[in-house]
Amino acid sequence: MQLVVESLETKLGKKEIVKNISLLVDNQKFVGVVGPNGCGKSTMLKSIYKSLPPHKGTVVLGDIDVLKTSQKKISQKLGVVGQFNEMHFDLTVEQMVLLGRTPHKRLLEVDNQVDIDIVEDALRQTNLLDYKDRSYLSLSGGEKQRTILARTIAQQPQFMILDEPTNHLDIRYQLEILQCVKKLNIGVLAALHDLETAAQYCDYLYAMKDGRIYTSGTPEEVLTPETISELYQIKCETYKNPITNQLGFVYQI
Amino acid sequence: MNTEKGSSVRQKQVFYVFALIFLICAIAITAVYSVSIGQVSIPFQQSMQIVLHTITNGHLGSLDQVESDSYTNIIMQVRMPRVVFALLIGMGLSLCGVVMQAIVQNPLADPYILGISSGGSLGATFAILVGFGSGTVLSQFGVAFGAFAGAMATSILVLVLSSIGGKVTSIKLVLSGVVIGALCSSLSSLVIFFANDAEGIKSVTFWTMGSLASSSWSKVPIMAIIVLAGCFLFLFQHRVLNTMLLGDESAITLGINLSVFRKLYMIIAALITGTMVAYSGMIGFVGLIIPHICRGLFGSDHKRLMPASLLLGGLFLMWADVLSRVLVENVELPIGILTSVIGSPLFIYMIVKKGYNFGG
Predict the structure, then answer these.
(1) Nearest to A89 among B9, B253, B360 (CB)
(2) Which chain positions lie within coiled-coil regions (chain A) (predicted)?
């Protein structure tokens, strides 16, 4: 499924956070957004999935005009894994993942065997089968985030938005999450804070600064020392990692 | 490994079903026991015959062994409405407790958190001390009306206040509730300060302690319709209630706009609470502690939590009512005192106990 965003503008109070952004995620492509804290990545993603309705612009996902469609319809096609958030009440992992079926259910409809199977499958994909009956709040950060990913997979979306899903996670959990998403083979738009992971997983990158797209292209085109210095206000050198053959970075203030 | 897990899930399911059946039986037995005690003590056996005989319209149970004809009257006309009231209000309070805790995503919430109690008190205080009328019947109606009007007015005010500037968030709701509550309390104090009416002030005090003494069949229908309709509605809202626990951001990505449901649920909960406050005054702690006990036993999934809370809430208040009548001879303690006296140690036990961390 294709995502087309055109001239998106979002204000928080009177301050303009997202300024005239247009971007495109082609079928089944993994597209990343990089940029320093406060550059408007999160706000832009929230505007796209309408948690923070934008003031201007259009968002078209497949054949749906997102800004004019009900939240329920959108959530049947679009899954979101957000930044880590706290909860005050506890659920088991299975109950948590089962909530991912919500968009496909009418208000009074009960969960049936099909839903249970979908949940089971999502748990398998995220390696959480053994955690099914565990309490969500007792899990570690990485396991919690995997549970959220499982919930989003159970939503059976055809497109996924990730908002720094690997924040605060150890390297292994970061890789597990992104690997799992990559395997789904659906369109993904992801805000990422780690440039090496961005280079490794993304087919295409948008670099954001001060609420605008600074530049875009393949990871090799975007992640140049000049662009990175400009974005993050640091000195940076890039090199080809001799072991992984991927882009590596060295930073200095 | 898997079969072990499967059987533990099944065990939980069986435990839950048994718990529900147990609660229903306990409620039935408590009802009969409850109508057998009071100023005139009627043996349990005879109470059961009378209740059975009356509800089945004479098909079951016989009145042959019943010692006095007046027993039927005492049980069916005087005591039964009170038992029904206790059941309904217990259910209503724990229903609103569960809903409010989900709405504000805070385990500290209870039905009164949004200023409804202070608003109801202000209305009742006003009705008692300033007055809508002086005849006994009229003044009784006046207090109920005042309390209901006060409760509804504060809820609407809280809702409006928390809607200013866009989304109704849980924090705005709680803070608005606290502010409006404080305002109403001070206004009540103002009315009391200027009232030169010792008798009236005493009634106000009694009213705030809660009582089921005014129950009668004539009041049951309104109460029953509102509470049972509310229960019926919320029993099927577990999906939305569960997503509420996740917070606004996650709920939106699951296609549910919490802002809308919060408003709707709050209005319904306020209507139920307002009606309960109007008829029975303030009965504290039930709406706070029953949901927590049930969460500790059955988890936070509202599909299980809701039915269990309703039944346990009803049962709890029925027993509180029984105790309020038998603890001190010839004196009827205000039920609000009892619920707090029983509720606090239970709550302390839950804080001390390690297994339950209030859902969070």
Answers:
(1) B360
(2) none
